[in-house]
Amino acid sequence: MRQAAVLSGLGSWLPPQVVTNDRLARQLDTSDEWIRRRTGIGQRHIAGPGIATSDLAIEAGRRALKSAATDRADCVIVATTTPDHPCPATAPMVAAKLGLGTVPAFDVAAVCAGFLYAGAVAEGLIAAGTVRTALVIGADTFSSILDPEDRTTRCVFGDGAGAAYLRAGSPEEPGALGPFTLGSDGTGADMIMVGGGGSRQPLRAENIARSDPYFRMQGKAVFRHAVERMSTAISTAIEGANWTLDDVEVFVTHQANLRIMQAVASHLGVPPERFPVHLDRVGNTAAASVPLTLVDAASAGTLRAGQRTVLEVLTEVVDGVTVGLSARWSGRGETSVAAVDRVG
Q1: I need a surface site. Which of 87, 210, 253, 309 has the fewest CB within 10 A?
Q2: pTM for this one?
């Protein structure tokens, strides 16, 4: 029988520094009311000086291992757009710091969709028998690539990390990951982009003035695409799992914007209460968004063992990638929830 990847542990970490809307209002032309009305966000956690993406990933990974009652993993995959360095990858450093030795470790760069892409890769490795366990981490310090004068991005993004421990098991087990729905649309690459620093616009002395090192976003265009693509991805993933919308008890979506989540729920005809909200306290944490929401929902009791759950995200940078995943949440009862911390 083909091995399935079974979710058996979760962990999260948020840097301790909290930036409220009121604090941003003192720095930018904005207000708490403006931010909440447009995004639903009240605050976000920001990595302070000396805190890198690997630091967040290591702590989230450690807690996921503890949640799964193990100290071993056969591979480590870190989904991030903000690695510690362009080279080498962040994942091998995370694996070493976690005491996992020389296991296979690599990064996945798919921005907000990164965690689910990394999960799909881990599922494939487990199904092929290459590994039996995998630690999948979504971690980003988006504050490091935001223009300090751009309120449209500074108000939205926060830093954090979330991790999931996957093990080989039966496709019939609670917690077994179901079908993934993956796709991309490279024609929308300019909607969300960091223009400078790549091979197209290298950061060199002769052209540094023309190379924009900051994250830029066309908010209105992203909103329109997000509602359509997220709704389609959810429907496709549910169809692939032979479920109906009524079968799904929890929809864990990328926490980009509360209005997007509400529009998707309305488009699908699903009560918004079935969409856990976490961004009001942490903002859009990019690759960490989905696992952080899973941890928060499990800790709050919204997500319980045996529930049918759909994870979904529309990436917000580069390719307009749509990702859907259906799964029956497994958890380990009260032990699992107690082992993961909501906030650093």
Answers
A1: 87
A2: 0.88
